[in-house]
Amino acid sequence: MSPRGSRPDPRARILRAATKLLATGGRTAVTTRAVSAAAGVQPPTIYRHFGDMGGLLDAAARETMAVHVRDQATRALTDDPVEDLRRGWDLYVAFGLAHPDAFALLYSAPSTAGPASTIHEGIAVLQGLVARVAGAGRLRVDVAHATDVIHAAGTGVTLALAAAPPEEGALRLSETMREAVLTALTVRASAEGTEGGPDAIPAAERAAVHAIALRVLLDEVPGVLSPPERQLLSDWLDRLAMARSPDDAMRRSSPPSRQTNSARPSSSPRARRAKDGLARTPDRADPPRTLGFERPDLQRDPS
C-alpha cells in the first residue's frame, strides 16, 4: 500500500489538526486557513464534514475531553477509594486548566447532543469512583447525589480558576473545595467512630453509611433475591440511607397526619353563628336536604 493510501481520511486529519491547534493556541487559533494548512485539505472540505467552524470547534473539544476520560477510566487504582476519588478530582481540575478553551466549549452548551454525551461519559467514570467509596462503607449519601455534588463542585472550581488570572497559591481554592466536599460526603475508614468520643458518628448516620454500601453491593449479587424481594430491600435501604437522625427517620416512616372533619375549621354561616353564640338549637333534627330532582318512585313509603 502506498504511503498516500495509508493516510487518515480527511475528516480525521481535520479533527486532529483542530484539536492540536485548540490545545496550543486556544480557540482563536482554530481558523479555516490554519486547519486547512495543517490537515492538507481545501477549506470546503472542512465545511462538508463539520458544517461550520463552530461544529469543528465542538468536535475538537469533545475529542480533547474524550482523551482525558479514557485516561481516567484506565488509570491504576489503590486500596483507598477515597484517595482515588481525591486524585480523580485533581486530575479533572488539572485537565480543565491545561485545556481551558476546550473545557469552556464543552460547558458553554452542555445541553446539545455532542457535548452532553462526552460529559456523561466522564460522569460515568466519576460515578464508578464514588461507588467504590460507597462499597467500602465510607459514603454518607447515595451514589447519584454524591456524584452530582462532586461534578458540580469540581466543574465550578475549574471554570473559576480558568477565568481568573494565574496567581501563586490559586490552586488552594481547588484543594479547599475538594476537602470540604469529601468531608461532607465521606466518613473515616472506620465508620463506627470512637465510642462516646467527640468524633463519634451518630448511630443513624452509621446505619445510613452501611445501608448505602449494601445498596451498591446488591448489584454484584443479582440472582440471590427475587425481583419483589430486591425491590423491597432496596426501598428499606433507601429509607435508612436518607435518615440522618431519629427525627428524619420518623418523618419519613410516618404518613402525614390528616385533619378530620371535626378538627378542620369551618367557614360556613352556621359555624360562624355558633362561634358568635347566635346558632339556634332546633327542637328536632333538621329534615334531610334534597337536590330537588329525586325520583318519587324511589322514595320510601312512610306507611
Structural features, described:
The protein has 13 helices and no strands. It is mostly helical. It folds into 3 domains: 7-51, Orthogonal Bundle (Arc Repressor Mutant, subunit A), CATH 1.10.10; 60-186, Orthogonal Bundle (Tetracycline Repressor, domain 2), CATH 1.10.357.10; 189-252, no CATH class. Helix 5 (81-98) packs antiparallel against helix 9 and helix 8 (143-163) runs antiparallel to helix 9 (172-185). Mean pLDDT is 78; it is low at 191-198, 245-267 and 277-296.
Helix content: 55-70%
SSE succession: HHHHHHHHHHHHH
Integer count of domains: 3
**CATH homologous superfamily assignment of the largest domain:** Tetracycline Repressor, domain 2
Assembly type? single chain
CATH topology type of the largest domain: Tetracycline Repressor, domain 2
Question: What is the rounded Rg?
Answer: 32 Å
Low-confidence stretches: 191-198, 245-267, 277-296
Main structural class: mainly alpha
* Biggest sheet character: none
Number of strands: 0
CATH class of the largest domain, please? Mainly Alpha
Q: Given the C-alpha coordinates, what overall shape results?
A: elongated
The average pLDDT value, as a whole number, equals: 78
Strand content: under 5%
Tally of contiguous helical segments: 13
For the record, give the distance between the C-alpha atoms at the N and C termini, rounded to a whole number: 112 Å
